């Protein structure tokens, strides 16, 4: 809650990170904009991180420049200073497929998924349905998200007003970004938040399926959409909000083209670097460079 004593402090950036929406890339860009000691990470599935944040005094919180993580709308109300809200949403079908690819590439042991629930995307879908977690974006932006989604205990069913509440909350964001228009979303963040450091990037934490190619049927896509109806509606709302904000900006299209050229060049440089330097030397180089 705003403390008048800190009303003149610089506004903190609050980044609500929806899993598998390009958030790791955004987090990397955020790292360039603020000092490490000015950034606080919080997560709904990391209870200790939220407790540490809540236990901070207003004086300590007043020095924060960015709060980020897998958190629900409402975390910003814990700040005693002004804040700006940013996020990135994604088409629920694409998000589900990306999540599944990510999980099978990392293995199920770390996240403690029950046996068999990662054997196929269909099995994972039914598991998610049983956890009431197929409308995660609505859960986060309505403010109804609770702890436990990642530990197997599931979520409470969303109340009837969840979607409309999530839509209304999303309208308060400075940048309600989408993965579909990721470059425009990043440039809006840079403009709205006054970021001065580069925002060129290579997608981080992108899901890669090793071995046999994953078969995604039309029937699966249809079933995911049916199970994520609230998220489908929320995503369409986000697309419209973002389009309206982009329409207001002058010269953004040229900046998008410039950013895409820079990203392409960075990708080529990294590809060459990876091919020329063995993995152990790349690790040493990162240590020397402090990265």
Tell me what the structure shows.
- It is a single chain.
- This protein is 49% helix and 8% strand.
- A 5-stranded parallel sheet has the order 2-3-1-4-5, sandwiched between helices.
- It is α/β, with parallel strands linked by helices and 291 residues long.
- The radius of gyration is 20 Å and the shape is globular.
- The model has no long low-confidence stretch (mean pLDDT 89).
- It has helices at residues 23-33, 47-55, 58-61, 92-106, 121-130, 136-142, 162-170, 182-193, 218-227, 229-248, 252-276, 279-289; strands at 12-17, 39-41, 66-69, 83-89, 175-178.
Q: Given this structure, which CATH class of the domain at 4-89 and 138-202 and 230-249 is correct?
A: Alpha Beta
Number of helices: 12
Sequence of secondary-structure elements? EHEHHEEHHHHEHHHHH
CATH architecture title of the domain at 4-89 and 138-202 and 230-249: 3-Layer(aba) Sandwich
Cα-atom Rg, whole angstroms?
20 Å
List keywords for this structure.
291 residues, alpha/beta, Rossmann fold, 5-stranded parallel beta sheet, 8% strand
């Amino acid at each position: 809650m705003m403390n008048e004593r800190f009303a003149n402090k610089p506004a903190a950036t609050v980044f609500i990170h929806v899993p598998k929406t390009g958030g790791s890339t955004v987090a990397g860009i955020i790292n360039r904009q603020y000092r490490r000691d000015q950034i606080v990470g919080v997560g709904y599935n990391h209870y200790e991180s939220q407790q540490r944040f809540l236990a901070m005094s207003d004086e300590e919180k007043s020095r924060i420049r960015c709060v980020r993580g897998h958190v629900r709308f409402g975390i910003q109300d814990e700040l005693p200073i002004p804040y700006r809200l940013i996020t990135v949403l994604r088409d629920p079908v694409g998000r589900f497929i990306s999540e599944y690819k990510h999980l099978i590439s990392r293995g199920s042991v770390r996240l403690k998924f029950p046996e068999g629930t990662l054997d196929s995307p269909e099995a994972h879908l039914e598991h998610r349905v049983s956890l009431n977690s197929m409308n995660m974006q609505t859960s986060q932006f309505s403010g109804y998200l609770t702890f436990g989604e990642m530990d197997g205990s599931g979520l409470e069913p969303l109340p009837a007003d969840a979607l409309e509440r999530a839509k209304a909350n999303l309208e308060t964001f400075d940048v309600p970004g989408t993965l579909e228009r990721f470059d425009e979303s990043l440039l809006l963040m840079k403009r709205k938040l006054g970021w001065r450091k580069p925002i060129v990037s290579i997608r981080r934490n992108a899901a890669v399926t090793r071995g046999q190619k994953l078969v995604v049927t039309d029937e699966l896509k249809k079933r995911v959409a049916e199970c994520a109806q609230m998220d489908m509606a929320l995503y369409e709302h986000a697309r419209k909000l973002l389009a309206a904000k982009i329409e207001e900006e002058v010269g953004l299209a040229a900046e998008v083209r410039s950013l895409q050229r820079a990203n392409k060049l960075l990708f080529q440089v990294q590809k060459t670097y990876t091919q020329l330097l063995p993995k152990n030397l790349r690790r040493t180089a990162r240590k020397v460079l402090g990265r």
